[in-house]
Amino acid sequence: MMGRLTGHNAIVTGGSRGLGRAIALAMAAEGAAVAVVGRTVEVWDERLPGTIGETVGAIEDLGGRAVAVQADLVVPMDRQRVIEEVHAALGPVTLLVNNAAFTAPGRPGSRPRPAPPQQAGAKAAWPTFTGTPLRAFQRHFDMVHAAYDLMQMVVPDMVAHGGGAIVNISSGASRMPGDGPYTADSDGAIPGYGSSKLALEHLTQCVAHELQDGGVPVNALCPSKPIATPGQSYFAATWDEYGSDTDFAEAAVRLCTVAAAEVTGRVMGHEDVLDGSFRSYEHTIPLARNAR
Fold it and tell me: Between the chain's N and C termini, which has fewer beta carbons within 10 Å?
């Protein structure tokens, strides 16, 4: 497959479903060889379908090249093993998409299980400050540590290659709930997830500042509108308007092709990438409706 990313080897974390899967498919369609990294090799909850093997299979069905790498990115040895396995299977890493995330409660069980019985229309609620133990809050930041570690490990490959790109996937949750006081129509807040995404955005800019002269653009990409992925749908809110996962994936691909001298250190909504403006992200997510 020939395309804008031909000749690149990419890592996409959290690639079993949702935005990670869409990004992996889009990158492969543009010619990249893709390592699909994640924990899920067997569906453990019917509300969260998809495995890394299924993503790889979909890429191969379209004529692309991909490899599945199972890893729990919270574990440092697993992160090191990811790089070793990708080097062995594909070669040096020139593109990295840090998409994997955690939202308490979010760790898979020890074996597959059906969804528990619920009242009609009921969904899991967004985790609250008072309802999130400290350790669960800390686990969100484990994913920031994972992104930090993976970036450090692949940058030598990118510099030796003469360039590459890093895209860190963030979220409008990093800006929720905004300034108070609040009303019943406020967007709500996700303390652990949102705080970790804000940390990832700042880290993105710090890394971009250091790597610009090495020809490696480093940017953070947020959905301009909520996107109805399995993970998002698992939680409580419904929204007035949704974006497309394929559009979001296209924005990620475009950020893999920009020049570090022109677009780096930015936190952008995907629509501002697609329209070519590359404007800094503003919190314009529509209000949640009918949250339960």
Answer: C
pLDDT in tens, 110-164: 344 444 444 433 344 667 888 889 999 999 999 999 999 999 999 999 999 999 9
Q: What residues pair up with 218 in beta bridges, in sequence order?
A: 166
In 127-171 the beta strands, taken as DSSP E runs, fall at 165-169
**Does the N-terminal peptide bond of residue 181 adopt cis geometry, omega within 30 degrees of 0?**
yes
| Cβ-Cβ contacts under 8 Å for 252 (sequence gap 6 or more) | 23, 26, 27, 97, 167, 169, 221, 270
- Read off the DSSP letter of residue 279: P
| 235 within some domain | yes
Q: Which residues contact 274 (CB under 8 A, 6 or more apart)?
A: 247, 250, 251, 254
The pLDDT > 90 percentage for the chain reads: 63
Question: Could you tell me the CA-to-CA distances from 122 to 35, 44, 46, 70, 118 in Å, in that order?
Answer: 36, 19, 15, 32, 6
Alpha-carbon distance of 273 to 220, in angstroms, equals 11
Total-model pTM: 0.87
Cross-strand partners of 220:
168, 267
Q: Which of 4-18, 148-162, 210-224, 240-254 has the lowest mean pLDDT?
A: 240-254
Query: Rounded to whole angstroms, how far apart are CA atoms 189 and 173?
Result: 7
Q: 19 lies in which domain range?
A: 9-104+120-289
> Residue 169 and residue 100: Cα distance in Å, rounded?
8
Q: What is the domain-level CATH number for residue 90? A: 3.40.50.720
In a domain, 113, yes or no: no
